Each structure stands twice: as C-alpha cells, then as structure tokens.
Amino acid sequence: MLRSDANPGGTPRAVFDAQLAANRAGFYREVPMPFYGFNRTSAKVQDGVVANWWRQGMMGAANAHYECIKAFSETDFSGDLNAIEIPTLVLHGDDDQIVPHQNTSVLSAKIIKNATLKIYPGYPHGMLTLHADTINPDLLEFIRT
Questions:
Q1: CA 93 – CA 69 distance, rounded (Å)
Q2: Crossing angle for the helix pair 13-22 and 62-74, nearest 10 degrees?
Q3: Count of CB atoms within 10 A of residue 145's CB?
Q4: CB neighbour list of residue 117: distance below 8 Å, 6 or more residues apart
Q5: Contact predicate 124/96, CB 8 Å
Q6: How far, CA to CA in Å, does 31 sit from each of 45, 51, 126, 128?
Q7: What own/partner pairs with CB < 8 Å and gap ≥ 24 does 106-111 have?
Q8: Are the C-beta atoms of 127 and 135 separated by less than 8 Å?
Q9: What is the SS3 assignment for 77?
C-alpha cells in the first residue's frame, strides 16, 4: 500500500502517520466512512457498524495499531504471493477507497499462479460486512469447485 519506487500508485507514508497519531479516537470515527463507503452520497450510514468499528479500534493498543499499519503498508508480499500454488480467490470492490483494487488485488491476482479475480462493482473495502449476502455464496461456490 505504501508509495515506493516499486509501488508508485501507493499512499504516502505521511498520510498513515498523520491520521493515526493526530487523533486516534477521531481516526476510528472517520475511517469507517470511506471504509464502508458511507461517505458516498447514495450511502445510508449504519450507525451500529460505525460504533462497532470504533469500539474495536479503541480496544487495541496505539503502538499495535501503528505497527500493524506500518507492516501491512510497507511489506512487499510479492514473494509470498508468488509461492502460492493452490487455487486462490481474490475478491475486491471497485469502490474501495482504503485499498484501491488497481494497486492491490489486480496485481496480486497476476502474481498468484492459480488466482481467480472477482471485482464487485460499487463495493467498498468493508464489503464483507455490508454485502455478505452476495459474497458468501461466491465464496461457497469457489470452495465447492
């Protein structure tokens, strides 16, 4: 996810650092909006989902959150993905404002030898919570084949 020479479309490190360090509680109130696509004009905010996100975020240690963001944003998983040889289903929403699909799932599916890529039009990063009725059958179909 982090912008680098190998990933020029990534997010600048300063964005990650500033958002979490400046106002941790506010960060966990704001991030669900783009995470679930609640900031889109047609979206209906689900207050319980936002509150649960905040609750989970505030339960963790600040240093653990920082190290987690650092690890997933800076680690190059290309070698790990290249080693996967079993059939793999890669799912992503094309309206993911947190981890844009062009820079992640599309590239991952190209690296994984037996990958099947499924992009869901209009789905956000939090699509598993909001669209389980669509995604769960797709998961089951992939597992059964």
A1: 20
A2: 170
A3: 8
A4: 90, 92, 105, 106, 109
A5: yes
A6: 13, 11, 11, 16
A7: 108/77, 108/81, 111/78, 111/81, 111/82
A8: yes
A9: coil
Q: Where are the domains of the chain?
A: 13-74, 78-144
Query: Which residue's structure tokens are 């799912």?
Result: 91
34, 97 contact by CB (below 8 A): yes
Q: Each residue's pLDDT tens digit in the chain (145 positions)?
A: 667 777 677 677 776 666 677 788 888 998 899 999 999 999 999 999 999 999 999 999 988 988 887 888 788 899 999 999 999 999 999 999 988 899 889 999 999 999 999 999 999 999 999 999 999 999 999 999 8
Strand stretches in the chain, DSSP E: 88-93, 115-120
